[in-house]
Amino acid sequence: GQQVMQIPQYQHVQEGEDFTTYCNSSTTLSNIQWYKQRPGGHPVFLIQLVKSGEVKKQKRLTFQFGEAKKNSSLHITATQTTDVGTYFCAGLLHMLTFGGGTRLMVKP
Amino acid sequence: NAGVTQTPKFRVLKTGQSMTLLCAQDMNHEYMYWYRQDPGMGLRLIHYSVGEGTTAKGEVPDGYNVSRLKKQNFLLGLESAAPSQTSVYFCASRSTENTGELFFGEGSRLTVL
Predict the structure, then answer these.
(1) In sequence order, what DSSP letters do the residues of A81-104 get, joined into one string?
(2) Each residue of A6-35: pLDDT tens digit?
(3) Does the beta-carbon distance from A33 to B101 stay under 8 Å?
(4) Which of A43, A48, A95 sits opposite B45 (nearest CB)?
(5) Would you call A63 an interface residue with chain B, using a CB distance cutoff of 8 Å?
């Protein structure tokens, strides 16, 4: 079945450093979504990417969808303590399948 | 406008007991979902519904049943709870109009002893 793998599982960074999480699918996706879950909270939608090679930016966050529509990345520039949480990708083929998430911890 | 509301937020069960989790959304969404979240495993889809009166199995449906008698409500039932069902359960909904964005409830933490 469809699988979505996400790495790394955990990442500690110093405040101000950059952070990247990667998402890979075993199959070509229709689109990919990214969510953020704060500690103790629920997932909140960040963005959806649909087109091959698409790049979208939200302030310090940059999202990319691979040319083959099988991988994606989220890059955060100059992390802040407010970026703490777990970031999930979710790939859509027949149904939305979530990756295992990357937990980001930021040291002030 | 409350969005997606889940009840209860916390519950402790003994093995073999039954219970129902309720999800209610006030956004007139067609699609509703039940996920479970376990450490390091992301969100796994249990069951989903594409409209009132319809339900379908997701990735991990065994041990659970669902009903969607009203458009705004999606119920998740455990007939005979097992310790392996200890988890955090999230309900989500989305409209048929696509961004495809899922709106999540705040979660229900279930412990089965």
Answers:
(1) GGG-EEEEEEEESSSEEE---EEE
(2) 999 999 999 999 999 999 999 999 999 999
(3) yes
(4) A95
(5) no
